[in-house]
Amino acid sequence: MNIEKIQESIEKIEKEIKETPYHKGTEHHIGKLKAKLAKLRLQLEKGVKKKGREGFAIRKEGDATLVLVGLPSVGKSTLLNKLTRAKSKVAPYPFTTLEVIPGMLDYKGAKIQLLDIPGLIGGATKGKGKGKQVLSIVRIADLLLVLASVEEPADFELIEKELLLAGVRINEKRPQVFIEKKGRGGIQISGKKLESISTEVVKSLAREFGILNADIVFKEDINQDRLIDVFLGNRVYVPRLKVLSKIDLVSKKELKDILNKIKSPVITISAKENLGLKKLKEEIFSKLNLIRIYLRKSRKAKPEKRPLICKKGTTVLEAAKKISEELAEEIKGAKIQGPSVKYPNQLVGLKHQLSDKDVVFFVKTV
Ligand SMILES: Nc1nc2c(ncn2[C@@H]2O[C@H](COP(=O)(O)OP(=O)(O)OP(=O)(O)O)[C@@H](O)[C@H]2O)c(=O)[nH]1
Ligand SMILES: [Mg+2]
User: Fold this and answer.
1) Which of 98, 244, 318, 325 is buried deepest, with most CB atoms within 10 A?
2) Gap between the Cα atoms of 65 and 59, Å rounded
3) pLDDT tens, 296-327?
4) Do 113 and 244 share a domain, yes or no?
5) Which atom of ligand 1 is nearest to the CA of 93?
6) CA 124, CA 195: separation in Å to the nearest integer?
7) Range of the domain at 355
8) Which atom from ligand 1 is nearest to the alpha carbon of 89?
């Protein structure tokens, strides 16, 4: 099928799904349509890729990577320049930024990489603008900053729709469904009781994706859309913050009206007038779920000034591994002072989970 044909079929199926009321009697039919749709979109993606478009080459650096996403001219580059030492070109016309411009934000001892990318437009998934390449960068993000200007707050929806089409799942947890393909035996379903989908539909969807024999373990109840994502397998699950930019252009009253119309929480900023940037940095740090671990070189030494930045939930062993494999092999536990323990210098094992602001001294014998 050529791209136009695929596009046509996609639209036809989208229309049918929209027009079919969802209930027990149509659940199966809609499920099949959705599976077909997902497969067509995948085909479209591949078709567009074949045109020889290449992704941007960029390496992740620092403790976490943030990507600034938004339509052209919403102020992505201006924000990057304000938060980091980068000098991304800023201009009043669209598509000023044509490649990925990295910058490093130093905050609370964490090195947060910010990637400024070309503006995204509707139809990016179909390859419009530099859509494909831009979306490939979005997929490596640990956190997305979606920007819209006070002039066009509806852009939030447009961008998120594009991201959804590109297989990016925003603020959604990865589905806890595990598939083990088998040689025979059909589809075996186990785990949590399913309320949002019938086992018949699960089996039928599996078949749509060419899975005839498999053990499927559900650690959660799941709906059709999320299950199709599992079968497709190439979805990315990222948190995001909505950032409303250029608030200097409107009055307090106008801003209030705009915010009332946007349902989910947004952070309001003006990069030009330095408004809301402190709050933005705080929100970024908290949304990244990072913790700061302060190491003590010896039992009596003062904790080091620069923290070791880890993900929330990091254990003593994992923290040691971040420093070196040798250290991780040598240690037996740690003495900790801080929020993760009951009393100062408490001795803990390798599996102990650390908390933000813990002071840690690794011990080699217990
Ligand atoms: N009033 C006002 N203007 C801003 C603000 N931030 C950016 N601008 C202006 O908006 C225009 C576009 O800014 P850029 O930072 O280049 O926007 P961009 O999102 O990087 O645009 P592309 O690279 O084309 O996608 C420039 O004229 C900026 O000076 C702001 O906070 N307030
Ligand atoms: Mg730019």
Assistant:
1) 244
2) 10
3) 988 888 999 999 999 999 999 999 999 999 99
4) yes
5) 24
6) 35
7) 290-363
8) 16
